Amino acid sequence: MNNSNQWRVFKRLMAYLKPYKLLTAAALTLLLLTTVVRSLIPLLASYFIDHFLTDFNQTAVMILIGYYLMYILQTIIQYLGNFFFARVSYSIVRDIRYDAFANMEKLGMSYFDRTPAGSIVSRLTNDTESISEMFSGILSSFISAIFIFTVTLYTMLMLDARLTGLVAVFLPLIFILVNLYRKKSVKVIEKTRSLLSDINTKLSESIEGIQIIQAFSQEDRLKDEFEAINEEHVLYANRSMALDSLFLRPAMSLLKLLAYAVLMAYFGFQGIGAGITAGLMYAFIQYINRLFDPLIEVTQNFSTLQTSMVSAGRVFDLIDEAGYEPLQADSQAEIEEGNIEFKDVSFSYDGNNRTLNHISFKVQKGQTIAFVGPTGSGKSSIINVFMRFYEFQSGQVLLDGRDIRAYSQKELRSKIGLVLQDPFLYHGTIKSNIKMYQDISDADVEAAAEFVDAAPFIQKLPQQYDTPVSERGSSFSTGQRQLLAFARTVASQPKVLIMDEATANIDSETEQIVQHSLEKLRRGRTTIAIAHRLSTIQDADCIYVLDKGQIIESGTHEELLAQGGTYQKMYRLQAGMMDAAG
């Protein structure tokens, strides 16, 4: 990240302060007050040393009381300032995290095809947390340091310009060190954050695929791969720490000690004759602390600032990602019947290699059509195009005689029901999974479960419809999860039903229950089915056989068998396998 990019990211972060300008102004005011109070304390101590150290009286007592009261006041004001900054920080991070999540929800499937889930999770958690650290601690310390540095330097000049000049010699060295650190550290920090994202990605994949990993005894391989990434992350983290140790606190502390040495040497050579009193010497020692300590703190936090800037850039990349799902018209058009027609549709995922080649077919309300074919033939691509997960390159997709793009996204999502091979259940309850947070009554939920034959197993559960659902519904069988997915679809009352190998992963006994539910689910609805088991789609009004993105055969089950082509071979192969299994 170069200087211009860092500046651009910083300005964008500052724009998030706008809604909280009053709270930010209050925090800044309190920081300024803290600085003023901190600067007055050494002056008071200096005055006490020069005038009352050998002549202790009632005025001296009052000055001492005032001295300690100022310390208490400084603590209270500083606490309030930090508290206000923390409030602003958490609010800004909430806004940034919301913007990133909101944009992510609008992105098309192509983005998720090329971006690991762990990387996205890392940006929304680790990277936003890093931004929070910048606002809650670093930004306040930077601003506080500017205030303290300015007020302290001004006070020192007012007290003695000669001594101030001796100390000021070291200031350019500080800025040179900070600039060197910034140039050398940014690439190391970027690599460290990237590797942390890789760790999250590998962790996410390992958790989601733990059954396959254990089934194929891949634990050692995954452990070695994780350790390799983890080791590289530690390597770059150590490089970052080495740069911190070289350019930041140790270097700054050394400069402060040199400033002390120069001050003491000057005092030793000039002494009282130069008009330097004990009180003035004490004040300058305190002011050197106040001059260097904030700078040391700022430089110490500079690595965190660099990390925050890199993290912010990664989050803004997600917010700026424009690979949105295909656009739909903002219209009031409604899907009444569910008649579908593909006219010479071609589609490619990468823009070069066609997955669908001039596909054309029709299906009317109440009819069922099915697509069969080998893996990679284009079956799921037809569903992806029709569901508007991806934009097709040529041809036309009509729904009730209108171009599918003429409907709003809300209308499409509400009138098209999708049942996948691996049904996804959310953490919650059976009831919330069927409702999917739509305006559906409990009676409608129960009616939907009854309709698809899910009610019998639900009613046997101790809490029935309020039974908790764990992540991905792992406590239910595949067949039970599929029935709940059917109930969810029925509850939304779609006009069109899409089934992507809905019975592929269930046993034959459960399949009979699911098939019975499917028959009821399909009645009166336009249905498009992708089938692996040909036995599940024999009653379809038309079956299309796909190969390499083209329709090579079409007809009813009997017609395709009579043609003696690819479908017949597929059917005989499956029938032979079933006979052998029997």
Give the secondary structure arrangement, pairings included.
Blueprint: H1 3-15, H2 21-52, H3 58-106, H4 109-114, H5 117-159, H6 161-168, H7 171-208, H8 210-215, H9 219-247, H10 249-270, H11 278-320, E1 340-348, E2 354-363, E3 368-372, H12 379-386, E4 394-399, E5 402-403, H13 409-415, E6 416-419, E7 428-429, H14 430-435, H15 442-451, H16 455-459, E8 468-469, H17 478-491, E9 496-500, H18 508-522, E10 526-530, E11 542-547, E12 550-555, H19 557-563, H20 566-581
Could you explain the architecture of this structure?
The chain has 582 residues and is of the alpha/beta class. It folds into 2 domains: 3-199 and 243-320, Up-down Bundle (ABC transporter transmembrane region fold), CATH 1.20.1560.10; 340-581, Rossmann fold (3-Layer(aba) Sandwich), CATH 3.40.50. Helices cover 65% and strands 11% of the residues. The protein is built from 20 helices and 12 strands. The strands form 3 sheets. It has a 6-stranded mixed sheet with strand order 6-9-10-3-11-12, sandwiched between helices. Strands 2-1-4-5 form a 4-stranded antiparallel sheet, with helices on one face. The two termini are 64 Å apart. Residues 578-582 have low confidence and may be disordered.
Question: What's this, in brief?
Answer:
This is Multidrug ABC transporter ATP-binding protein. It is built from 20 helices and twelve strands. The chain has 582 residues and is an alpha/beta fold.
Strand content: 5-15%
Low-confidence runs of at least 5 consecutive residues:
578-582
Q: The CATH topology of the largest domain, please?
A: ABC transporter transmembrane region fold
Look at the helices and sheets and give the structural class: alpha/beta
Give the C-alpha Rg: 35 Å
Number of helices: 20
| General form | elongated
Order of strands, main sheet, comes to 6-9-10-3-11-12
Task: Identify the CATH class of the largest domain.
Answer: Mainly Alpha
User: CATH homologous superfamily of the largest domain, by name?
Assistant: ABC transporter type 1, transmembrane domain
- How many strands, which pairing sense, and closed or not: the largest β-sheet? 6 strands, mixed
List how many beta strands DSSP finds: 12
CATH architecture annotation name of the largest domain? Up-down Bundle
Task: Specify the helix fraction band.
Answer: 55-70%
Q: How many angstroms separate the termini?
A: 64 Å
Number of domains: 2
